[in-house]
């Protein structure tokens, strides 16, 4: 079986910087109880391959194999990965009288219909590489679906726990894709406690957000891919729906690695963490200048993917936001729903609630002067809008009665 050349050098603690974590062995959190980051021999990668050679490959995010930790082709799990499109929104730009480009990166085109495919494909592939057979995780929906699908393909068992108000479509797809799924009368952190408490008795590996090192590596491909799609450049700002924040952390890591490789310059986008007013621990910590975010009490928002009361990688999210001169912003549910309708009716793009939150945040940031009307901005739509309830706006006709066509206008 073909073996990839691995360029992983070691892992290090994202909080303390301790770098004595050996590659090629199973890891969870660091000794400080914080996420581990995978580090690479970037000089070796630079000598081995060019950016254009990598970008010309097929296979979606798997094309970045030199910057990923999987070493054997037999452990790569394929479900039809693609490079997700950049969708320009000229009608929204015209409505807002902005000259800068508004771009939606539509992650709903990935397998299982969300950006969770990136992180979970890598987590499952590395679990396969390490011979792990049983995985468990808490989820607000999309992550559980992605893990179930990839793990089933790889021949693994999955145990998945979600809040009892998780969208029904998410729960059903988890089960239909081979996952054992339970609804729990609590939030995602309560589900996470069940996973943690059951590790010894059940012998499962905890794939909770940032509690293993490889979901970040999958999510960083959003940044690698975006830079390549923009001609090896970056936008002025990225609005990212932030729950556990793996993607925001991963993209910030990606831009650093790309610059060190000489594949992009030193320009960085403002990294903007978007949350809901009913669950905004990162926004609160950012506004207070804190390094860590406190547990958010009474978390609520219909945008379930960003209803995460506590994030183990909070300091990494906040570091990326601050280092990029970005900010954290919270949007209420009414404006999120209005934004979803606006994007759909003006651009014909059906986004998920979390993706809609990024557009609502962009509008607020424009009004506040935190972004400019000339900025090129990228809004991440993290999931396929068809997975979520939609408003009923249709009318009825009686075919047996005269139809007043002019009244339809």
Overview of this protein structure:
With 409 residues, this protein is an alpha/beta fold. It is 36% helix and 15% strand. It has helices at residues 42-48, 51-55, 90-96, 116-129, 142-154, 168-176, 188-197, 199-202, 214-219, 221-229, 246-261, 281-288, 314-323, 333-347, 353-368; strands spanning 8-13, 36-40, 86-88, 102-106, 134-138, 157-163, 180-184, 205-206, 237-241, 270-276, 327-331, 377-381. The strands form 3 sheets. A 6-stranded mixed sheet has the order 3-4-12-9-10-11, sandwiched between helices. The chain has a 4-stranded parallel sheet with strand order 7-6-5-8. β5, α5 and β6 form a beta-alpha-beta unit. α5 packs parallel to α6 and α14 (333-347) crosses α15 (353-368). It starts with 7 loop residues before the first strand and ends in a 28-residue tail after the last strand.
């Amino acid at each position: 079986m073909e073996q990839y050349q691995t360029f992983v050098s070691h892992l290090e603690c994202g909080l303390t910087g301790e770098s004595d974590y050996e590659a090629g062995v199973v890891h969870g959190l660091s000794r400080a109880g914080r996420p581990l980051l995978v580090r690479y021999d970037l000089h070796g990668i630079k000598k081995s391959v060019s950016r254009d050679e990598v970008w010309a490959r097929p296979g979606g995010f798997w094309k970045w194999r030199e910057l990923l930790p999987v070493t054997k082709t037999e452990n790569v799990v394929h479900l039809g990965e693609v490079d997700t499109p950049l969708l320009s929104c000229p009608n929204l730009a015209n409505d807002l009288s902005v000259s800068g480009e508004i771009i939606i990166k539509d992650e709903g085109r990935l397998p299982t219909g969300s950006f969770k495919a990136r992180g979970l494909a890598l987590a499952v592939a590395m679990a396969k590489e390490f011979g792990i057979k049983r995985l468990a995780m808490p989820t607000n929906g999309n992550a559980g679906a992605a893990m179930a699908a990839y793990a089933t393909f790889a021949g693994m068992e999955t145990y998945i726990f979600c809040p009892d108000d998780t969208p029904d479509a998410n729960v059903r797809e988890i089960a239909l894709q081979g996952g054992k799924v339970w609804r729990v009368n609590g939030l995602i952190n309560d589900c996470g406690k069940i996973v943690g408490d059951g590790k010894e008795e059940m012998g499962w590996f905890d794939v909770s957000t940032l509690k293993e090192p490889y979901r970040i590596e999958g999510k960083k491909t959003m940044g690698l891919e975006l830079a390549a799609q923009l001609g090896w450049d970056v936008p002025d700002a990225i609005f990212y729906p932030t729950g556990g924040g793996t993607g925001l952390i991963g993209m910030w890591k990606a831009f650093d690695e790309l610059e060190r490789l000489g594949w992009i310059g030193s320009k960085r986008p403002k990294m903007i963490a978007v949350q809901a007013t009913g669950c905004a621990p990162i926004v609160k910590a950012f506004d207070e200048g804190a390094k860590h975010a406190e547990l958010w009490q009474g978390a609520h928002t219909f945008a379930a993917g960003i209803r995460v009361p506590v994030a183990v990688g909070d300091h990494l999210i906040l570091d990326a936001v601050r280092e990029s001169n970005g900010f954290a912003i919270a949007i209420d549910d009414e404006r999120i729903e209005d934004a979803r309708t606006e994007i759909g009716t003006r651009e014909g793009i059906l986004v998920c609630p979390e993706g809609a939150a990024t557009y609502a945040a962009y509008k607020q940031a424009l009004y506040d002067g935190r972004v400019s009307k000339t900025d090129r901005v990228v809004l991440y739509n993290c999931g396929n809008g068809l997975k979520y309830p939609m408003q009923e706006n249709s009318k009825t006709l009686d075919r047996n009665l005269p139809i007043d066509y002019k009244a339809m206008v």
